[in-house]
Amino acid sequence: MAIIYTYPTKATPNANDLILISDSQDSNKTKQVTVASLPGGSGSGVSSVTSANAAITVADSTTTPVLTSVAYSGGTGIGHVPTGGDNTKFLRGDATWVAITDNDTTIDTKNGGSSVANPTTSLDFATALTATSAPGGVVSINFSGGLRELSDVSYTPGLTESSLYIATVPSNAGSQTGNTTMGSGAAGAITTGENNTIIGAIAGNIITTGAGNVIIGRNADTSAAGNNNSIAIGSSSSSGDRGLAVGSSTSAGASGIALGFNATALANELAIGNITTVTVNADGETPGPLNTPRFLPIKIWNGSTPVLYYIPLYQ
Question: Any idea what DSSP says for residue 256?
Answer without folding.
Answer: -
